[in-house]
Amino acid sequence: MKVMIRRTGTGLSAYVSKKDLEEPIIAMENENLWGGCVLLRNGWRLALPDLPKDTRLPITVEAKKISEED
């Protein structure tokens, strides 16, 4: 699914346009964000692509939902 990652005043957030859903990222598997999983406040876990750590935000990427919860 297409996910836009952006920086907000309180941290990082993920926006999924197909679901009209924006949630804060509350945990990251990798310190530099890319190439690992992130946990959203609603419980979704998303696998993000492996990108350079200096990738500029905001950016839209193809992410895979790995959580069973909707």
Automatic annotation (TrEMBL):
Q: Which InterPro entries match?
A: NifT (IPR009727), NifT/FixU_barrel-like_dom_sf (IPR024044)
Organism of derivation:
Rhizobium tropici
Keywords from UniProt, A to Z, are:
Plasmid
* Family matches, as Pfam families: NifT (PF06988)
Give the protein name, as stated in the record: Nitrogen fixation protein FixT
One of the protein's GO biological processes? nitrogen fixation
- Domain of life from the UniProt record: Bacteria
